[in-house]
Model the fold of this input.
Amino acid sequence: MKIILTSIGTRGDIEPFIAIGKFLKEKGHQVICAFSEQFRELTESCNLEFASFGKKLDELSKIDAARTLMGGGSGIKKFFAIIKLARNQKGASKEKELKLYELVKQERPDRIVYHSSTVYPVIWECKNRGKTIFVSPFPYCHYVQGHAFLFGKNYGEFLNKLTFKLYDFGAAMTPLIFKKMMQINDKITRKQLKNIIQSRKFIYTISPSLFPRPGYWENNVKILGHQELNRKTDWKPEKKLTEFIAKYEKILFITFGSMVNPEPELKTKIILENLERNKIPAIINTADGGLIKPDNFNSELIYFVSQIPYSWVFPKMYAVIHHGGAGTTHLAIKYGCATMIIPHLFDQFVWDKIISDLGVGPKGIKISKINNNNLELKILELLNNRNFKVKSSKIGNQMKKEVFEDELYKTIIE
Done:
């Protein structure tokens, strides 16, 4: 078969698709990955065919409004940031959907595997029923008792159910808007689209050890485990890094991944002051700039990296503090690390609640609210409560035993 996989977002949104693409290619299928330009190198390094959405989507993450939305400011500031991003995003979204439309028209795929950030596959399924597969690393896209849509909060059953109905309504209306924008003349009704939204093949790339599948869900919705991307790289640890790790028995790893914020210097300063005051050895990953390496710090106690494979470093760490992306959350627990989330936006608050409910770490603090006092209490709790480490190791061992390849393949191909 010829299969198009398409998604936008951060690395955590893209990697499950590349992992699935590698798996499908190994099974003999032709795979085309349609992502924004920043993921070309990652995709092609996995020997997968790449189709670009262009650079407009990548440029959005660099504007001040994106930093405000992800990492700080009052509710009012975030509200205006969302408006500004929406205005800037219109052109990028149109470009993305038109490029995907042209790609599908040209390649005539047998299947499309897609993310919530792409719309055209829903339109395409109107004439190709059962040939699209929705993939989500986010929990709560379907009704779960005691939880509202996506953010997982409990507003009471009436309001909880209402949030899912509003999602279904929006998910059906959005393709109609894009259909008009792209001048697609096919006659499609909202009722048709609503039926597709409710009956399409849906895969959560989430471990059931973290998010068990409710028994009352329809059969088209499956939870088939985290899809970890394993790829060969020429990365090797510096001698200083291996010596640093060998020197300490109990090390904390800190990363904000792809998340940025308006005050990376201040956030780093708060973290460093806590670590140095309590003599906590730590590795800090600056990644995409949410944290930065200052000119002066205790280099005997703190080690900075800019990129590092989590599958290499997490097994060597006692605990991890991170932003709460689905991928980082899964890997931290898979490798038995006590875990705390500093959520920046959206589903990260859900993962924060999930891991604290599971008992693998304390409830975190949102990035805009951290200060010397509240962060110190949380870090000390994370490192001193042995139960967090024990529970994480237990769940991590369960996750390592999860095998969903056959069911994943069957869901996509049949």
Residues 119 and 175 are 6 Å apart (CA to CA).
